[in-house]
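Example record for the data management plan.
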Amino acid sequence: MFPNRLTHLIETHWDDIAAGTIPRIRDDEDVPHMQKLSDAELLNWARGILVALKSWTLAGEDGRLAIQYNELGRVRFENSVPLYEVVRCLHILKGRVSGFVRDHAFAQNALELYGQEELEHNIGLFFDWLLYTIARGYEDARQRAAAPRY
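Corresponding structural encoding:
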């Protein structure tokens, strides 16, 4: 379970984290398709993931979230966004979340430091699960598109 104070920190500052992610996506030459999305679309994408982070911590690998991110993978496939760009943008967002926690969560004692480390570990688990779920939706859509139609 994530430490409540740190989870609340991410939840209340999602807009700062998301806003800081957009310039990094815009500057990354490896994501030209994702760069074509508007700032509002990128902000909404980041917000959805950051809000899901809290839901995931409360419910574990919630089936509703899996369906939602399977759908995101499908949409990215249908919009001809290469899967590696989706993965790269998630890495950028994950880095922003982890950096935000390190910059704003000043551990006062060993227990708080442990909580911060546990949060970063769980953020990694969440993004691993998210990558899997999105890739699965992407591949399912790719396979359906490649299947012969009768």
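Summary line stored alongside the record: The chain has a mean pLDDT of 85.
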